[in-house]
Design brief:
Helices cover 32% and strands 25% of the residues. It is built from 13 helices and 22 strands. A 7-stranded mixed β-sheet has the order 5-4-3-2-1-6-17. Strands 8-15-9-10-11 form a 5-stranded parallel β-sheet, with helices on one face. It has a 5-stranded antiparallel β-sheet with strand order 18-19-22-21-20. The termini are far apart. The structure holds flavin-adenine dinucleotide (FAD). The site of flavin-adenine dinucleotide has 36 residues, from α1, β2, α2, α3 and β3.
């Protein structure tokens, strides 16, 4: 008899696990209360990047003038909204179709554990109970809302209410300068809003390479973004069409809208974890081992609920590994998700991407490393395209030449980092990059230069 595998949550963690397990012969059911594709498709990765792409086109039009073209661009908010919705629904439809074609059963409802091997689902037609040999919890996370923030989904927003936008804010105050905060700052300033960014420390992206953060800060200032550094918001008051954000040190921002980008909390409550003895950490994330197994031997976790790196790509990889573990696939030499080697990107302008060991981390630990940095201003393609901002940095082991990490700031950084990610994951050497015959002219040539 086929293995019965039930998944709660149809985001990237859940749907990747379903696809792989179905391919390997399991009888798979996904319980999803909203849409297949999850928050990633509906609110997070996809709509934000779709809007950033539109903002990017507007910037391109401005840049086109410097290339000798007389171009004008005007934002059509209704068309933008339609575009965001249509991308979401195409992706959602494609994912659903693929799962259905693989024989995965999709149940629209809210699931919770009844016992170690039973799930209860509340559906529009009533309650359904399902038995499972293996269970995956992939219910994701949601925006963190502190008690001083009266979110009203009109002018005081979390990232989830900010798109598709009913209107482009005149003046947006973004609270939080981590990855999500800087992406929102970039997105709305590119779309024409005045933006004030409340930065709790002295650097945007406080946990990133200071050199990388400096390039982004310079770009924000060039665009007229106001940076309120060392400021911690502690109250938000709405007064009709204005919102006032007060900071602990007495500074304040008067804006038309405010968006909170101050982290997330796991969707672990109401999941019936106590009915199966699944353990959570003090913040509510389900604790997992290197195989994504919870404290219960056949209940796995993937994605944001696991409290590991909150990335769609990581959720998918965890989902894949869970399915392989359940179905007993041992063919791969490297079986566990290596969070240290996850590539990530920030879709600002310029783009920022990184993977593996960071320079500051290496110096802090006293580890000897070789760091090579090449600016895009020496790259023919960057000059041809009229955008020579940024650089490529590669970190390697001086004794062996093995690539340990890298960061890229500049055009197409999110695509280019894949080469360094491949090297880091497979312990390739800098010579493996320099010996590759690359296209000319191409931005990727800067990778070979930085590896030399
Ligand atoms: C603004 C923003 C932008 C982002 N951009 C990127 C990006 O560019 N790249 C990237 O890699 N990551 C990005 N992320 C992170 C990424 O969205 C998450 O890491 C990813 O969605 C996690 O996937 P998941 O499978 O854990 O959960 P989710 O995508 O959150 O899916 C969980 C699903 O479970 C369902 N669910 C929850 N509880 C139940 C229940 N009891 N019963 C049934 N269904 C349930 C939910 O409806 C949801 O559909 C971004 C995040 C934010 C906030």
């Amino acid at each position: 008899m086929a293995v019965r595998f039930v998944i709660i949550g149809g985001g990237p963690g859940g749907n990747t696990a379903a696809t792989v397990a179905a391919m390997l012969g399991a009888e798979v059911t996904i319980v999803e209360r909203d849409v297949i594709g999850g928050a990633a498709h509906l609110w997070d990765c996809i709509p934000s990047k779709a809007m950033i792409a539109t903002g990017g086109e507007l910037s391109e039009l401005t840049r086109a003038r410097s290339m000798g073209l007389a171009a004008e661009g005007h934002l059509d908010v209704d068309a933008l909204r339609e575009r965001v919705k249509s991308i979401e629904s195409r992706l959602h439809g494609a994912t659903k179709l693929m799962l259905e074609s693989q024989g995965v059963r999709l149940i629209n409802g809210t699931g919770r554990l009844k016992s170690r091997h039973e799930i209860i689902v509340d559906t529009a037609d009533g309650i359904e109970e399902i038995g499972a040999d293996y269970i995956l919890l992939a219910t994701g996370s949601r925006a963190r809302v502190p008690d001083w923030a009266p979110v009203d989904a009109e002018r005081v927003l979390t990232t989830r209410e900010a798109y598709p936008p009913a209107e482009i804010p005149d003046h947006l105050c973004v609270i939080g300068s981590g990855v999500t905060g800087v992406e929102f700052t970039h997105m709305f300033s590119a779309l024409g809003s005045k933006v004030t960014l409340v930065v709790s420390r002295q650097q945007v992206l406080p946990y990133k390479d200071p050199e990388v953060a400096a390039v982004l800060e310079a770009e924000f200032l060039r665009r007229g973004v106001q940076l309120l550094k060392g400021a911690r918001a502690h109250t938000i008051r709405r007064d009709d069409d204005t919102v006032r954000v007060d900071c602990i040190d007495g500074r304040h921002v008067d804006a038309s809208h405010v968006v909170l980008a101050i982290g997330s909390v796991p969707n672990s409550e109401g999941l019936g974890l106590e009915n199966a003895g699944v353990e959570v950490d003090p913040d509510g994330y389900v604790t997992i081992n290197h195989n994504c197994l919870s404290s219960v031997e056949h209940i796995y976790v993937a994605g944001d609920l696991s409290g590991k790196l909150p990335l769609s790509s990581v959720a998918s990889m965890q989902g894949r590994k869970v399915a392989e573990h359940i179905m007993g696939v041992h063919a791969r030499a490297h079986r566990h998700v290596d969070y240290e080697k996850a590539a990530s990107a920030i879709f600002t302008e310029p783009e920022i991407a990184e993977v593996g060991l960071a320079e500051a981390e290496a110096f802090a630990s006293g580890r000897k490393i070789r760091v090579t940095k090449v600016p895009f201003s020496t790259n023919a393609k960057a000059l041809i395209e009229g955008d020579p901002r940024g650089f490529v940095k590669i970190l390697s082991d001086p004794a062996t030449g093995v690539v340990l990490g890298g960061s890229i700031v500049g055009r197409s950084a999110a695509e280019l980092i894949s080469v360094i990610a491949l090297a880091v994951t497979n312990n390739l050497k800098v010579s493996d990059i320099t010996d590759s015959l690359l296209v000319h002219p191409a931005l990727a040539e800067s990778l070979a230069d930085a590896a030399s």
